[in-house]
Write a structure and sequence with these properties.
This protein is an alpha/beta fold and 341 residues long. The chain contains 12 helices and 13 strands.
Amino acid sequence: MTVPVELREVTKVFSRPGKAVPSSWLRRLFSSESEKYVAVSGLSFSLKEGEILGFIGPNGAGKSTTLKMLAGILQPTSGEVRVMGLDPMRHRDKVAKHIAAVFGQKSQLWIHLPAIDSFKILGEVYGLSGRETLSRIEELSKALALTPFLNVSVRKLSLGERIRCEIAASLIHRPDVLFLDEPTIGLDIDARRSMREHIVKLNATFKTTIILTSHDLVDIERLCTSVIIINKGVKVYQGSIDELRDRYLHIKQVKIRASGLIPADLLPPTVRVLRNDTVLEFEVDTDQVPLAECLRKLISGGFMDDITIHDRPLEDIILSIYKSEIIKNDKNVSSPCNYAP
């Protein structure tokens, strides 16, 4: 069976103008001097059919560069990239039939046309017959619940409805691999939940291999079977979502709005207090102290006017991974390299 996605020791180096001496701007204008910037370093991974990978990291980590190499937009400096067994740069036309992408802030739909018209146009682009296109529109409409607004102008759709249509448009040609770049960005809570349900459903229906990038850890937890964390071009973690959850998502950050200073002794001694005035902020390791135990006394004492609970920021988790001796010794972790062109 063909492996949908495979990268072997992939490195991408960009050249950019070297640092200028303030008095030498004219010399720099005509100079060919440049410095090397390593965007991706020694990245290796492969995906099975139907796998949903969470590909995450801070801005500038190398996620977009990696996706562009998979799509055949960028040529790796070294290493091998394969999509359905093909080199995306050498076989760009063939690979294009196997892949699709959805970007949360970019549209491939014609905004003044009904979504169904965009689907028909895309069917023509991919060389489908009229009958095939209509059959796939019907199939996708059921999978993504599009029927109520198929004939509505795209500009009149809600953001959640539009993103579902964007996903349908990407699947018209039945790609083997789908890149989802922040698909829930800008959606409200209900729309996010609905979008996740639809992504799970289409994955189960079409066995599409999905690479999902997101800064929302809830998206990653609910959708992905595996996760890769990349930072400064280097893979710092690879494993199952269950393993990531067990190791790093048990620490919760809690913010409580109160009418005044909250007595510190109401919280267990292992809780880390970050702020305590009219707002109480603390961090709790739920492996050591149940969250309910932390909140019980605050609720019974009448101190709580409002509460927000969320996971630690992704950047903090990445820092924890760097500091973790377990991860440092993990055979799946790549080491930073100094690239010598």
